[in-house]
Each structure stands twice: as C-alpha cells, then as structure tokens.
Amino acid sequence: MIEFKNVSKSFWTGKQRKVILDNASFRVEPGNNLGILAPNGTGKSTVINMMAGLEKPDEGAIVKSSRVSFPLGFMGGVVSRLSAKENARYVAKLYGLDPDYIEAYTRWLCGLEEYYDFPVGTFSSGMRARFSFSLLLALEFDIYLIDEGMPQTTDAEFNRKAGDVLKERLENATVVIVSHQAKTLEKFAHSAAVLRDGQLYMFDTLEEAKQLYDYQTQG
Ligand SMILES: Nc1ncnc2c1ncn2[C@@H]1O[C@H](COP(=O)(O)OP(=O)(O)OP(=O)(O)O)[C@@H](O)[C@H]1O
C-alpha cells in the first residue's frame, strides 16, 4: 500500500507558486490498478515521483508498505558511460539480486543484441526505453509506476514480449499509471482518479473519472 497523509507539494517558479498537492490524503491499495488523469503540466510526474520516493513532500507523510518501483522510463539510476550489461549488473547488486540472472533476463527482453554491451549514452531513445523497461520488469515489485503509458518503441517484437511480461507481472502486482488521456489508462486501470486543484479525486471506475476530467478540460 502507498498512503499519502495530508501531503502538500508546490514549486516556486520565480513568479508564482505552482501547487501540485494541497493537504491531500489518499491510498493506493494493492490489487487495485489505479489510473490518474490530469492535463499536461499539472503534476502527474511529480505525484508518481513522490510515490517512488524521488520527490519529497513539502508537508505531510508518504507511507509505503509495499515494494514500489521506480517510474517506468526513469533513467536516473542508469549511468550513460556504462554498457547496458554493466548497468544491469550494478542495479541487480543494489537490489540484492543475482547479477547473472538480471543480465540474462534484460539481455533477452530488450533484444538489443550486440548493443547490449555498448555504453547506454550511445543508445537512441527507443533503445533506452527498451532497456529501462526491461530493467523494470526484471526486478520484482508489488506496485509498478508508469508515467504516460508504455514506452513508445517501434519494435513490434519488443512490444509484444514486454506486453506479455507485464501482463504476467500484473497477475500478482498492481500498477499505478498517470496520463493526460483516458485512452492510455483503459488497458490497465480498475479504478481511476483525477488530479485537480491540489487534490486527487478517487473514483471506482474510469468512466466516472472521465466525466469529471472531461468537464474540467472542456469547461
Ligand atoms: N523541480 C521543479 N522546480 C520547479 N518547477 C517544477 C519542478 N518540477 C516540476 N515543476 C513544475 O510543476 C508542474 C508540474 O510538473 P510535472 O512534470 O509533474 O507535470 P506533468 O503533469 O507530469 O506534466 P507533463 O505531462 O507535461 O510531463 C509544471 O509546471 C512544472 O514546470
């Protein structure tokens, strides 16, 4: 479970205070895939980063009783001058896992062939996406965080493999996915929430969340 207790978060832009959360309290329950809808620039990444522990709240507390992933697509832990292989082995050690297993798994899933042994800094954005997604799926979490859908790769073979693995993972794990469009959430979300005016409004269904969201974005 991830619980936000009276969490406030804002940024000072130099001209104004941008409020992301204002004394917000909500929970992400295991087994209940949650989709969060919010327009671009309103704080989706910030909320996901707070769940991952990459951003701290200004006030309040975030309590976690599950293993929560880093956000899908997050490359902060990956060192550009090291190869995918070296990064995978390093991350395995950080998580106390078998480096041989994590190397073999990511090598198989990302399908980068000989580029797996090249520095990550030389990768195209699609190759980076494939590597970071493979790394995320190689590690076992109770809650997976996804920012704006699946990585956009044009590699059909990778998309199929990664989609299958994610589906399998989600039989025992939960996903939190944020997007500015309901369509991205449809495949995963059981319930949904709308980030608005510093609060996260929770709904039992995506349909209900969409009604508030459409009203908000069109009005
Ligand atoms: N470290 C920071 N310092 C100042 N402002 C920030 C910082 N991080 C984010 N912001 C601002 O907070 C707001 C929300 O940013 P965030 O990236 O969370 O939004 P988002 O909904 O994920 O946007 P997008 O969908 O465009 O990525 C934006 O106006 C952004 O400029």
From TrEMBL:
InterPro entries: AAA+_ATPase, ABC_transporter-like_ATP-bd, ABC_transporter-like_CS, Bact_Polysacc_Export_ATP-bd, P-loop_NTPase
Keyword ATP-binding part of the UniProt annotation: yes
Pfam families found in the cross-reference section: ABC_tran
ATP-binding as UniProt keyword: yes
UniProt cross-references to SUPFAM superfamilies, sorted A to Z: P-loop containing nucleoside triphosphate hydrolases
Domain ABC transporter: 2-219
Keyword terms: ATP-binding, Nucleotide-binding
Name the UniProt record assigns to this protein: ABC transporter
